[in-house]
Amino acid sequence: MTMVETQPPWAARDGLRITGVRAIVTAPEATLVVVRVDTSEPGLYGLGCATFTQRATAVAATVEHLAPLVVGRHPADIEDITRMVHLSSYWRNGPVLNNALSGLDMALWDIAGKRAGAPVYELLGGRVRAAVPIYLHASGATIDDTIEHARSLIGSGLRHVRLQTGGPGVGTYGAPGIPGGYPDAPYPDGWDVEHYLATTPRLFAAAREALGDEVSLLHDVHSRLTVKQALVLCRSLEPYRLFFVEDPIAPEHYDRLPELRAAAAVPIAAGEQVGSVPDAARLVTAGGVDLLRLHISAIGGLTPARKLTALCELAGVRTAWHSPADVSPVGMAANLALDVSSHAFGIQEGHVYAEAVHEVFPGTLRPVNGYLTPSDAPGWGIDLDERAAAKYPPHHYGHERWSTRIRRPDGAIEPP
């Protein structure tokens, strides 16, 4: 494929061109994939998050495959370039292609900010808030342990806390389990749905009594329930006024979210496993969610996410972008650009990055008193030290091994 085949039918305003596109894979904490786009202007480059931890090698290979499509293009043509890449494989969407596209897309926005001498959020219309409240995760093997962890987070200034508690077996989500919990079962380390449905309301009853009414409480089901089970859980949690219940049912059944949302007063957040813009838009337009919660690199980056943010604002839905350890600091910066520039903002998942991440990504943000404040530097305000990145080679298959280990006591695989 020659460069001329990918050029648009208009003349570029100046001689600036994309000269290189490559993926950098590093694991200072989780395995992260970041795309670097270089230009013909010395020192002008952009970074974008392409992190699909579970398939990092596939994403990196896809970035390499796509590079010839965009080398020679003007980096300002973000809409045209990203649409071209989206359509280039004919069969579109899916987290591998979309993450590769996201890395390119975010890197082009980083370049745009640097060329303008402004942070990306100014290119989106500027701030509507000074900083972004976040939530962090409190967990423990027991209810008491979880509440004690939550107390420590609240003591650091946090006012939004996700609560997860453990139980028998090793399949508990977001909290330590007790190995060998069901010694007479075919799979003693299984996760039992009835135990979960009984324990979770007790967790939040105890949390409200211990933590008071001023803190906002959240919970992640992680897609493990049927619609009826989810309804039982959500109704049982109504007295405790949760900020949201996340992913109560599996993405295969998202068409049932509107009836679940209508039948229980607890706000519903969903979308973390969505891998296409139309699917994300349907969550909003069909009335399935109170908060749209996307891993924005899985849908293709900032460009589609800002359009979905506008849709949320028009529909009265709020945003709650996914951002644990397997979102790079660049991806977090993109989340914050959307958060501070939109009235649709609801809450931002936070993460306290390991010091090694700060070493690899100079400019990585730290929460202060439960808030994150975006950088005022041009672009994302995040850089990548490739020498430091090379010290932390990627580790593959860790997440897959965790996922495939989760089973019910009868031995059936349980979705992670």
Describe the protein.
The structure is a single chain. This protein is an alpha/beta fold. The protein has 14 helices and 12 strands. Strands 4, 5, 6, 7, 8, 9, 10, 11 and 12 form a 9-stranded mixed β-sheet that branches. Strands 1-2-3 form a 3-stranded antiparallel β-sheet. Helix 5 packs across helix 6 (about 195-210), helix 6 packs parallel to helix 7 (about 225-235) and helix 9 (about 275-285) packs parallel to helix 10 (about 300-315).
Concise description?
The protein is an alpha/beta fold and 416 residues long. It has 14 helices and 12 strands.
Task: Give the helices and strands, then pairings.
Blueprint: E1 18-26, E2 32-39, E3 45-49, H1 56-70, H2 78-88, H3 95-116, H4 120-123, E4 132-140, H5 143-155, E5 160-165, H6 193-211, E6 216-220, H7 227-237, E7 244-246, H8 257-263, E8 268-270, H9 277-285, E9 291-292, H10 302-315, E10 318-319, H11 329-341, E11 348-349, H12 355-360, E12 371-372, H13 386-390, H14 398-404
Parallel strand pairs: 4-5, 4-11, 5-6, 6-7, 7-8, 8-9, 9-10
Antiparallel strand pairs: 1-2, 2-3, 4-12
